[in-house]
Target: BAAT / Acyl-CoA thioester hydrolase C terminal
Amino acid sequence: MPLQIVRRLIPEWGTTYGPPGEGPFPAVMVLHGSEGAWSGWSHRNAAILAAHGFLAFPFGYSSGGNAWNAGHIVDCPLDRSVEALAALREFPFVGPRVGLYGVSRGAEHALLLASLMAKEGAERLPEAIAAHSPPDVVCGAFDARSFRDSGDPGWQAWDVGKRAWSWRGSQEGLLPTTPIEVERYGGPLFLSHGTSDRMWSVEMTRRLEKRLQAHGRQPEVHYYEGEDHLPGSEGENRHHELLLDFFGRHL
Model:
């Protein structure tokens, strides 16, 4: 039986998942959350995109990690994400349009990256961006080695003494609680959030939506009634229908 999803390596960057054949295919760079690159969730999301005609690149931006400890979001250089996006564009199987998709901290990463690239006047921003369960502000560093469940002694949402991101060698403007200036990005934008999210409040996406509308933007926004940070089966199926439709229209 011929393969319906094919792995292809971008030298020095990592694997992609896509349809068989020579392409070119519409492409999506997939950004993982605080679970870290080694956890495999971004690869699973990439495989779903690949099964529907996209070439998907799960970019592992977290630092450190191994098969038992999947990586940390500490001092992650967003410049490297720009370089990864450029490498994806140069991959021979990729067409002229490239999207960005992130979940949770990956959604923060996607929105923050786009806003910084736009602020700098960078060329070739992503042609479309999807962010599920995004925060509306910059968050602090997350080190999985010190993670504790909510309610445990010493619990905290992130490490307040460390920073998650850097840009052009600096953390200026990237301190926790700094609003993400997503309104700087002028391309198609998909936002989604479960209304019963217990990790990132749905009010974060509502604030993003209002801020974008105040700047004359009309993002595509979907609220999944009763769904948590990660949707259940029915909610996730609906999310993927909407996500694939969005990227299908814009890539």
In short: The chain has one domain: 6-250.
